[in-house]
Design a protein that fits this description.
Elements (H helix, E strand, L loop, with lengths): L2 H5 L1 H19 L4 H12 L4 H17 L2
Helix pairs in contact: 2-3
Length: 66
């Protein structure tokens, strides 16, 4: 198990499921530009859960020295 998964176990599972749904939804679009906008809109929503998600990732990347 990854160190980050131990710290925030459900966060990674939830994010993976949500991203899979976003990919599927965007993939169904016949317009590539609209699909990209939809995907990015889903990844960078303006809500507290999205902010928390990205703060966790930024902390993880900083700590791992990537």
């Amino acid at each position: 198990m990854d160190v980050a998964e131990e710290l925030v176990p459900g966060e990674f599972v939830d994010a993976a499921l949500e991203f899979t749904a976003l990919q599927r939804s965007a993939g169904e679009s016949s317009d590539a530009a609209a699909a990209l906008v939809q995907l990015l809109g889903g990844l960078f929503r303006d809500d507290s859960d999205t902010r928390r998600h990205w703060l966790i990732w930024f902390d993880f990347w900083s700590a791992s020295g990537v």
